[in-house]
């Protein structure tokens, strides 16, 4: 690990300003992803600004019937909150489907949103990777691509976003609250938060330099039945090959989002419109224009079958 | 065919060379004087910079601990290398195996994925703080009774995790296998297996580990 200096600010605005002061500075929350990457020297921050201990750790009701989740609320606490379990079941389900209990006790809401990809080539410092070293090339293209993206990928990057929580949040249309280094706040709808890789796969979201996530707001509950079906190589503690997040209403309408298929949680408006027409129609909309390899072509039928199982479960009394 | 003694000599040679180069690097003034001619700025000497240190004070197994550590020190390395509490094990050092599991402010975490300096004022409990050979924690006794280990390397992490699992079920926290997440979870084998999935046992003592936790959970 490269040496770094360390600082504990006393407020979110001070934290955002502190990160801008030192070149190469980073925020650290739970650290479960950042420290892992620092040990491999994939992340080499010169300075860490520890955002623990500056509040942002509460779950509070909002005026319009939603919930405001502080950036530092731990994944375990968000999953266990009875309001989340009752009204946002898809989010609680997605959270407990991710990582291990030890990691969920540390990992934060904001940190989970900002997880880096688990692409094996990104994790291997001896291989070119446009996400790790912009312009160096993509080792995954033409490599072993079983876990890689099938939609939205570019000639520069075919990595997937690893989060389960973010898939549920994309489905719920959450808003991301931030504070910028000048102290000003803004709200980013999650639909505008993540980026596709394009020619700049190292830029994964639309946060400005030094911008700090302070909270995530869940809109008022959608009702309906909530599902998060994650398909992986082990029964527990593994990243998704694909996952399906869905809310299904009694009349068969609803919304759907996918994990494990793209550089960001994947949602298509036309797929939501097709929900009442069944899994095949919805999959056709979600994965229109999919580009698969021999290694990951299985993801297309896997999405359709997982969606069919979700819909069958939704129809049960 | 290589003579093994040649290999040994080679390795010895490398070690001596390595030791000498370290010595040279530790005397930058000497190195610079030899290489820099008149009017030429000496190249920066290849000296390992002094580590960046930071103070941290916390409680470990009920005792106050103060340390001035390299900021890179993980909580795991603080426990093992500075406090010599070697019960907590380093397995993968990347949060995948659970051997380093300790209780941090009453919750289980991977101590390898946590910086020591981030735990000012924290309360840490390691396997040494759970029980002693003379006065074992009920979970330790149950692991012994049910043979919940083979080589024993993952055992301290398994036991810390197991104690936390029962606490998490008692508090009603849902898991991936909880059928109805709005209800209290059951103390079932499926729940225990899912909740223990962050602790890997290469020997495969899983069924005995589940037996041990089930026994302690049943008594609780």
Give your account of this protein's structure.
The complex is a heterodimer of chains A (317) and B (220). Chain A is of the alpha+beta class. Chain A is built from eleven helices and eleven strands. Chain A has helices at 12-21, 34-39, 75-80, 82-87, 89-97, 101-106, 109-113, 165-172, 269-273, 279-286, 299-315, and strands at 5-7, 25-28, 47-50, 59-61, 67-70, 175-179, 185-189, 212-218, 225-231, 242-248, 254-259. A five-stranded antiparallel sheet of chain A has the order 4-5-8-6-7. In chain A, strands 1-3-2 form a three-stranded parallel sheet, with helices on one face. The radius of gyration of chain A is 19 Å and the shape is globular. The mean pLDDT of chain A is 97. Chain B is an alpha+beta fold and 220 residues long. In chain B, helix 5 (138-145) packs across helix 8 (206-219). The A-B interface holds A 1, 3-6, 8, 28, 31-32, 35-36, 39, 48, 50, 52, 76, 79-80, 82, 85-86, 89, 92-93, 96-97, 99-103, 105-106, 234-237 and B 49, 51-52, 54, 70-72, 74, 93-95, 98, 101, 104, 107-110, 113-115, 117-118, 120, 161, 164-165, 168, 171-176, 178, 181-182, 193-195, 197-199.
């Amino acid at each position: 690990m490269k040496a770094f200096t360390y600082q504990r600010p006393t407020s979110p605005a001070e934290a955002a300003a502190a990160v801008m002061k030192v070149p190469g500075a980073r925020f650290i929350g739970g650290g479960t992803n950042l420290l892992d990457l620092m040990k491999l020297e994939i992340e080499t921050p010169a300075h860490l600004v520890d955002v623990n201990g500056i509040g942002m750790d509460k779950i509070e009701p909002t005026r319009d019937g939603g919930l405001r989740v502080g950036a530092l609320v731990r994944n375990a606490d968000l999953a266990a909150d009875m309001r989340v379990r009752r009204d946002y079941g898809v989010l609680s389900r997605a959270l407990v489907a991710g990582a291990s209990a030890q990691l969920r006790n540390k990992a934060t809401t904001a940190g989970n949103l900002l997880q880096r990809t688990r692409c094996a080539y990104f994790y291997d410092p001896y291989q070119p990777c446009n996400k790790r070293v912009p312009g160096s090339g993509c080792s995954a293209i033409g490599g072993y691509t079983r876990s890689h993206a099938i939609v939205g990928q570019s000639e520069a990057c075919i990595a997937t976003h690893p989060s389960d929580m973010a898939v549920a949040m994309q489905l719920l249309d959450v808003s991301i609250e931030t504070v910028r280094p000048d102290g000003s706040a803004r709200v980013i709808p999650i639909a505008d938060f993540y980026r596709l890789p394009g020619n700049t796969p190292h830029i994964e979201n639309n946060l400005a330099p030094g911008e700090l996530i302070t909270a995530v707001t869940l809109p008022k509950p959608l009702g309906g039945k909530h599902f998060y079906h994650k398909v992986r190589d082990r029964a527990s503690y593994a990243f998704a090959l694909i996952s399906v997040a869905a809310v299904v209403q009694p009349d068969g309408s609803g919304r759907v989002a996918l994990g494990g298929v793209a550089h960001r949680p994947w949602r298509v408006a036309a797929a939501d419109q097709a929900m009442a027409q069944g899994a095949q129609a919805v999959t056709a909309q979600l994965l229109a224009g999919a580009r698969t390899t021999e290694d990951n072509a299985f993801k297309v039928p896997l999405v359709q079958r997982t969606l069919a199982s979700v819909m069958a479960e939704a129809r049960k009394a | 065919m290589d003579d093994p003694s040649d290999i040994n000599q080679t390795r010895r040679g490398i070690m001596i060379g390595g030791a000498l180069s370290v010595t040279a690097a530790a005397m930058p003034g000497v190195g610079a004087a030899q290489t820099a001619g008149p009017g030429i700025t000496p190249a920066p000497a290849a000296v390992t910079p002094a580590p960046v240190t930071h103070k941290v004070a916390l409680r470990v197994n009920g005792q106050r601990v103060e340390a001035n550590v390299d900021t890179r020190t993980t909580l795991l390395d603080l426990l093992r290398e500075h406090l010599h509490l070697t019960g907590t094990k380093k397995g993968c050092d990347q949060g995948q195996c659970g051997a380093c599991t300790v209780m941090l402010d009453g919750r289980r975490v991977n101590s390898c994925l946590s910086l020591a300096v981030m735990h000012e004022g924290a309360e840490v409990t390691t396997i040494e703080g759970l029980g002693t050979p003379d006065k074992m924690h009920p979970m330790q006794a149950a692991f012994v009774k049910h043979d919940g280990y083979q080589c024993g390397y993952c055992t301290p992490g398994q036991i810390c995790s197991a104690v936390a699992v029962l606490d998490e079920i008692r508090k009603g926290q849902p898991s991936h296998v909880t059928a109805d997440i709005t209800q209290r979870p059951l103390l079932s084998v499926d729940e225990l297996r899912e909740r223990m999935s962050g602790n890997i046992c290469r020997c495969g003592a899983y069924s005995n580990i589940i037996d041990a936790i089930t026994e302690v959970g049943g008594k609780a």
